[in-house]
Amino acid sequence: MKTNRRGFFKICAGGMAGTTLAALGFAPGYALAETRSYKLIKAKETRNNCTYCAVGCGVLLYSMGDGAKNASDTIFHVEGDPDHPVSRGSLCPKGAGLLDYIHSKNRLHYPQYRAPGSDKWQRISWDEAIERIARLMKADRDANFQHKNQQGTIVNRWTTTGMLCSSAASNETGLLDYKFSRSLGMLAVDNQARLCHGPTVAALAPSFGRGAMTNNWVDIKNADVIIIMGGNAAEAHPVGFKWVIEAKKQRNARLIVVDPRFNRSAAVADHYAPIRPGSDAAFLLGVVRYLIEKDAIQHAYVKAYTNAALIINEKYDFHEGLFSGFDHTTGAYDTASWQYEFDEQGYARRDETLAHPRCVWNLLKQHVARYTPECVENICGTPQSDFLTVCEMLATTSAQNKTTSFLYALGWTHHTIGGQIIRGAAIIQLLLGNIGMPGGGINALRGHSNVQGYTDLGLLSQSLPGYMPLPSEKQTSLASYLKAVTPTTLRAGEVNYWQNTPKFFISLMKSLYGDNATVDNHWGYDWLPKWDKSYDVTTQAELMLDGKMNGYIVQGFNPLAAFPDKNKASRAFSSLKYMVVIDPLATESACFWQNEGEFNDVNSAEIQTEVFRLPSSCFAEENGSIANSSRWLQWHQAAANPPGEALHDSKILGRLFVRLRQLYQQEGGATPEPLLNTHWPYLDPADPLPEEVARESNGYALQDLHDEQGNLVLKKGQQLSSFAQLRDDGSTASFCWIYAGSWTEQGNQMALRDNADPSGLGAVSGWAWAWPANRRILYNRASADPQGKAWDPQRKLIEWNGSAWQGLDVPDFPVNSAPEQQVSPFIMLPDGVGHLFSLNKMVDGPFPEHYEPMESPIGTNPLHPAVVSSPVVRVFARDKKALGSAREFPYVATTYSITELFRHWTKHALLNAIAQPEQFVEISEQLAQAKTIQAGDMIKVSSGRGYIKARAVVTARLQPLTINGKQVETIGIPCHWGFKGATHKGFLANTLTHSIGEANSQTPEYKAFLVNVEKV
Length: 1016
Fold this sequence. Notes:
16% strand, 29 helices, globular, alpha/beta
C-alpha cells in the first residue's frame, strides 16, 4: 500500500485507519516516517499503559491538542513505547486496536435511564442521575442497615446493596471505591479477582507469605526451564511471552507446555504434554513423587528454607480422601490438627535429621506415594512417556545454578481445587530450590491490567487494603481483632513481619477516618462493617434471587458475561430494584433487560429493575497508576478528555459520595456516623484528583516522627518513604501499607522511567515502583545459601558483604541480619520458611490432593471413590440442581482466550472485530467425524444450565484422552462474544458454566464442566 504525505495526514486525522494500517504492517518504514513528521507539527505525545492484560505494556498516545489555538484533544494514533523494559515497543493485536477502543461507536456519551418494565433507554442529566441514585441508595440503606446483630455486637453493615469494582481503573479510583463502599457499610464488594486469580492469593500466601507473582516479566529470560501449565502465555500475554523466547534464544532454555489443547505456546515448546481439564493436581503431585524418588532435590535449600524438618501435630491424618477434622454435618474442616507440634516455649519442634515420622518431609513422601506415573496417566490421560519427560526436564533444575520458572493463569485458578493446584507447583519449586532465585519462582499471569492493584487495595468482600482481613462480627473489639490476625512467631529469631499488623491497621484507620479516629474510640474500629459470612459474587446472586439484595453498583465490570451461569445471573439482576452501571462502553450487563432473541431471551416488560448507565472515562483519559503482574505500579497520563458528557470514575464517585453525605447531614438516617466520619480530604470533594489520592495511598506523618535515639525522621505532613515508618499510636496514616514508598518526599516513584539494566538480568529497579519497597523478586534472600553466598555466582541477586545484604535488588530481608543469626528468608510467614505443608490457612487441606471437578466425566475418583469431588466446596441448592452428569453431557468443556480478543471488551473495537468476527467452538477431528460435523457447521453446545450455538472449528489441537479406562473428549470454548459490540452477535459462553467455586476463594470452575454437542 502506498500513500503520499497529504494522504497519510488524512488517514491519521480520520482516526482508526491510521493505526490499523501501521498495525497490519503496510509500508511500515514510510508510515512511521510520516507519523513522526506529523507528530512534530501539531501533536502531543502522552505516555500510558495498555488497558488489557497485566503485562502492562507501555504505549504512546498521540493527540491533536498541543496547546495551539482551536486544537482539540483527539487521540489519532497509538503505538508501543520503545523505552518500556517489558514490552520494548511491542503491542499485541489487542494493544494494536487500542485506538479503535478509544473511539469505539459503543462508547457512552451521556447518562441514560431505563425505567421499570421499559424496553428502551432515555437520556437524563448528571444531576438527575446522581439525585435519583442517591435517593435509591439512601432509602435502601435506611430500611436495611444493621447497626447491631442479634448478640448486640456493633456490626454497622449494609448487605442489601452491593458493588462490583473495576479491574482496569486506576489504583486511585480503587481507593475511592473502597472508601465509598465501606463508609456506607457495604459488605457485598468484589472485583474481577473473585472471578480469576482469587485462588492465587489463597495458595501463594500460605506457601511463601504473599499472594503475588514472585518474580517479574523480564526475569523470565533468566530461566533454564520454563513450564507453562494452566495458561497459554503466547495467546493471552503475547508481549510478555517474548521473555520466554528470549530465554530460549539466550540461555537455551527448554520450554514445557502442559495443556488440554496443543495451543500457540505449545507450538514453540520443546515438549508438549496433553492433560484432561481439572486433573492438574494429580500431575503436579506425580512430579513431586518423581523428584523425591529420584532424589532430584536441592537438599541444602530444602533443609534450611522450608518446613520439611518441622514436626506436625500427632492428631493430623489423611485417609481415603479426607484430612483430619472433617465434620460430615457442616461439610467443613476443623483445622486445629493441621498445625505443628510445639515445645514449651511455643515454638515448632524440628528434626534436622528428617527421621521423625511426623516431620513434614516424611508426611509429604507418604502423601504423594500414590501418584505414580501409572496413576497420573489414569487420572490425567497424559501418556507416561510425556509425563516422565516433563519430570526429567524439571529435575535438571534441582542443581544450584539452574532454575525453572512456572507460568500459569486461569487454567489453574478456574477449578474447585484451584488453590491446591497452585500449591502443587509451590511444593515443586521449594523442592527444586527455585523460589527467590533469578529465573525461578511461580509467576501468576494476571489477566486484567489492574486486577493486581484492586486486590492489593482490598476490594473483596472480606478484605482490607494490604491483605489484612476485614473484621468479622466475632471480633467484637479492636483488641480481639488484632489478637486474632496478628501471628505469633513460630520459631525463635524469625522476622514474622506480620507481627506489625497493628501498625498497618491503625495507620489505615487514620487514613479512613482522619482526626475522627482516636485512641478513645479505638481508631474508629466500630465504624468498619463486620461480616457474618462471605458476600462474594455467587452469594450476591443468591441474595438477589432470594429478595435479599435490592441494589447493585457495577463499575467497569460486565457481570452478565463474567458471572458463572449467565441465565442465573439474568434472573438475579431481574430481581433487583435498581442497578447502576459505570462504564465507558455499552455492555451486556447494562442491557440485561433487553430481548436479543436466543442470545438473551427475556421479557423486558416483566423486569422491574431501574437501570442507570453512567458513561465513564477509559485508560487513555485518566491520570493514575495500575499494578501489573510483576507488582509494578506504573503511572500513566491522560491524553484527552472523555467523550461527550462522560466523566472520570473519581468524579462520578465523588459526586455520589458528596450527595449522600449531604442527604444524611440534612435529613439524618440509619447510623450516619461511618459515612459522616469518613476522611474525604480532597480539594474538590466532588472531584478528587489522582495525585491527591496517590499521596494518601502512600501515607504521611500526622506528627513529627522520631527514631529510638530521638532523631527526627519525618516532619508532620511529610510523605512516608517506607512502611517501616508506620506506627500504631495514630501518628501515621497510610491507606495501603504495601504501597508506602510509592509517593515519597522525593516525588512520584511510580512515574520513574529509568530502564537501565547494567547487570543484564532484568533488574530495572528504576522503572516505575514495585511493592513491597521496590523489590523486584520476592524472597530474594533465598537466592543465597545459609552462609550468604549466591547459589549461582553467575546470577547473583543479593549477597552478604560482611555487614549488610546488597545486590541488584532491594533485599526482601532485614539488611543487617547476618547469616550466623540464621534468620530465614520467608519473612511474611511466622516460621520464616517456605511451606511444603501449608498449615491451617487453606480450608481444603495442608497438602494438595486430586479431587474431580464438580461435573466429572468418569463419575468417580480413582484415588478414593467415596470422596469424588472436594468435600468442602460451597454448593447452593439451585446450583446443585443444575449440575449435569456424564450420561447426559458426555464431553468435558473448557473456556479460554484468544490472541485477537480480550474478554468482552475488544469486540467493541473494529480492528479486533474484523480479526475475529464470529463465535466458534473447537472440537476434535474424531468427535467431528462421529457427529458428522464439518468445519464451519453451526453446532449447539449444551450443559445443565443452558446452551450456545457457534461455528465448529475442527482441529487436531484437541485429542481424546483415555481416563480411567474411558475415552474422554475435550471441547474448547473461547469466551469473548456476546450480544453487544462490533462483532457478529453471539452467545455468552458463561451460559454453560456452573456456579460452584474454588473452595478457598469461591472462584468459579470455568475450566472443567460437562456438555453435549449437536449439529444444528
